Automatic annotation (TrEMBL):
Stored InterPro entries: Annexin, Annexin_repeat, Annexin_repeat_CS, Annexin_sf
Protein name: Annexin
Domain comment (free text): A pair of annexin repeats may form one binding site for calcium and phospholipid.
GO molecular function: calcium ion binding; calcium-dependent phospholipid binding; phosphatidylserine binding
Record-level GO BP terms: cytokinetic process; phagocytosis
Family membership: Belongs to the annexin family.
Alphabetical keyword list: Annexin, Calcium, Calcium/phospholipid-binding, Repeat
CC terms in the record's Gene Ontology section: cytoplasm; nucleus; plasma membrane; vesicle membrane
Compositionally biased residues, Pro residues: 1-10
Top-level taxon of origin: Eukaryota
């Protein structure tokens, strides 16, 4: 575990400065040299045996392993002890810490599929989760998610979405879950200008809104192309595309196009799923947008929450849980 400054006078973990982002790897977690699954499961078993649970030992180990080093621990644990690691952890841990640890032991595809399932089942739908996953994953990742979802839950993801959502928001999600977005890196500026004009004609320059035009462009075009479209849109009408969408649409559809609010589960999902992808970029963009480090804001928010519910003695566990996402 990387060294970290101690708590500030207010009791909140000190703020580690976000490092400059080098070219290449954008994640904050790297392979642990010499990791041994059999040795690692001994540590986990010892942390769960006896009176109480050594949460710090669990996060110390898992926080220093990449996903490909953590996932084999499930099979190694069953081979060594004849028990299910997920079941044992769930019996020993509670709340957000339990959710975090369980998430860390799943493959990215299985984690996404389980999060989508949780977002859909039960009373109400977690639209933010559906939007976040389906709009940020690659075509190959979405295709694999569809396969795992069907195998795990006996129903296609599209069928689940169709039965639990409605209207233009349903159409947006169904389009996204096809995994058929253009993924070319090159951008045709003339086409980007045409798309910007189409969006303007379908929204700001029209009585009512032609949601199908927004759907066709936002769900099918490549991400580099969309960035060019949004730039051309702002140049053309003097307003950011997000503000136009907020003016012209409402409710779930607006959230689907602009982005929705976050909750504890969302925070865990983003931290776990992006820690080996682009966490360094996220940290830098957060600092640029809000003038504060992501580490500080998360620390303050969770520290207050834990003080109210669990007492100050859990602060060290909080620090350990956060630190591995902010390794330099």
């Amino acid at each position: 575990m990387p060294s970290n400054p101690g708590p500030s006078p207010g009791g909140v973990p000190a703020n580690p400065q976000a490092p400059a982002i080098p070219k290449g790897y954008r994640g904050s977690i790297k392979d642990f040299p010499g990791a041994d699954p059999l040795r690692d499961v001994e540590v986990l078993r010892k942390a769960m045996k006896g009176f109480g649970t050594d949460e710090k030992a669990i996060i110390e180990l898992l926080g220093n392993r990449t996903n490909k080093q953590r996932v084999p621990l499930v099979a190694a644990y069953k081979t060594t002890y004849g028990k299910d690691l997920f079941r044992d952890l769930k019996s020993e841990l509670t709340g957000n810490f339990e959710d975090l640890v369980v998430a860390m032991l799943k493959t990215p595809t299985h984690f996404d599929a389980s999060e989508l399932r949780e977002a859909i089942k039960g009373a109400g739908t977690d639209e933010a989760c559906l939007i976040e996953i389906l709009s940020s994953r690659s075509n190959a990742e979405i295709i694999e998610i569809n396969k795992v979802y069907k195998a795990e839950y006996g129903k296609t993801l599209e069928d689940s979405i169709t039965s639990d959502t409605s209207g233009h928001f349903r159409r947006l999600l169904v389009s996204l879950c096809q995994g058929n977005r253009d993924e070319r890196e090159t951008v045709d500026i003339s086409l980007a200008k045409q798309d910007a004009q189409k969006l303007y004609a379908a929204g700001e320059n029209k009585v009512g809104t032609d949601e199908s035009q927004f759907n066709a462009i936002l769900c099918a075009r490549s991400k580099p192309h969309l960035r060019a479209v949004f730039h051309e849109y702002q140049q053309m009408c003097g307003r950011e595309i997000e503000k136009s969408i907020c003016r012209e649409t409402s409710g779930n559809l607006e959230n689907g196009m602009v982005g929705a609010g976050t909750k504890d589960r969302t925070l865990i999902r983003v931290m776990v799923s992006r820690s080996e992808v682009d966490m360094l970029d996220i940290r830098q963009e957060y600092l640029k947008a809000y003038g504060k480090s992501l580490y500080t804001d998360i620390s303050v928010s969770l520290f207050v929450h834990m003080q109210i519910r669990n007492g100050a003695n859990n602060l060290e566990i909080l620090k350990k849980s956060l630190e591995f996402y902010f390794q330099k």
